[in-house]
Amino acid sequence: MESYALLLAATLNAGTVLAIASLGLLINEKVGIVNLGAEGMMLCAAIAGFATVVTTGNDWLGFAAGMAIGAVLAGIFGLLVIWLNTNQYATGLALTLFGTGFSAFVGTSFVQAKIPERASYAIPGLADIPWIGPALFRHHPLVYITVLLALALIWFMYRTRSGLVMRSVGESPESAHALGYPVRRIRLLAVVAGGALCGLAGAYLSVIYTPLWVEGMVAGKGWIALALTTFATWRPARVLLGAYLFGGVTMLQFHLQSIGVDVPSQFLSMLPYVATIVVLALISRNPQWIRVNMPTSLGKPFYPGA
């Protein structure tokens, strides 16, 4: 039983990285912008957050540094694709390539660095409950904040006027522009907010999930987060559930190895990516279902003067 509790705890931990990044990308796509630069932003934020915590010893300053780097990179991306109308897909790929190389260059001196010891985050009383305590109540506060973030995003998008405007920009930017809404500024704000969340995911990865810096440590999680937005059909609650599902698949490889299952480690390492491909293939069998839920202007440039 204890091993299953640890598996559940590891699933929540791994799923948090994907959930934060996916929620950020969901905000981007709700206003019609596809950002393929998540992997690069997360890598730059990972080294920024790790370096900050090594220097200051404060996790939250590390998270703030990661969010700042993610927001800045997303802002540059937004200016290029929203104001200069560069191709969203090519610009996002360029951002990923840049982030991969830049983070490797900057992080060279931090490869052997260690983060200072931190206090336990176990919740007094609850953490001692058999099975449930180790599984649910010994996590970093950001694990619980992520769940609250998803709930807040649901409330914002479907219960507030600002959320309605944001979704209308994603559905028909021309109509929103005709009604007097600053479509470009709304899109840029959403892109920056999404980038900040991708940055937070990257910082969480290097500071909490695997407290170290290694070149390329995001290891495809940015791409899985992109797939998750489609898997969840652009709904925050489904994003959260999907993130924990993929987190569980990621952790399953270690659990199987720990109980002595004789499966090649290379095959187990492929599991998260195989699951991503299978899920997308199943979803793609019903294009009408995707079309109903997908923001109409997703990936399409907007020309205010047209």
UniProtKB/TrEMBL annotation:
InterPro entries: ABC_transp_permease (IPR001851). Its main location: membrane. The keyword Transmembrane helix applies. It is found in: Cell membrane. Pfam families: BPD_transp_2. It comes from the Bacteria. CDD domains: TM_PBP1_transp_TpRbsC_like. Keywords: Cell membrane, Membrane, Transmembrane, Transmembrane helix. It is a multi-pass membrane protein. The chain crosses the membrane at residues 6-26, 33-54, 60-84, 91-111, 141-158, 188-210, 216-234, 241-261, 267-284. The keyword Transmembrane applies. This is ABC transporter permease. It comes from Rhodoferax lithotrophicus. The lineage of its organism: Bacteria, Pseudomonadati, Pseudomonadota, Betaproteobacteria, Burkholderiales.
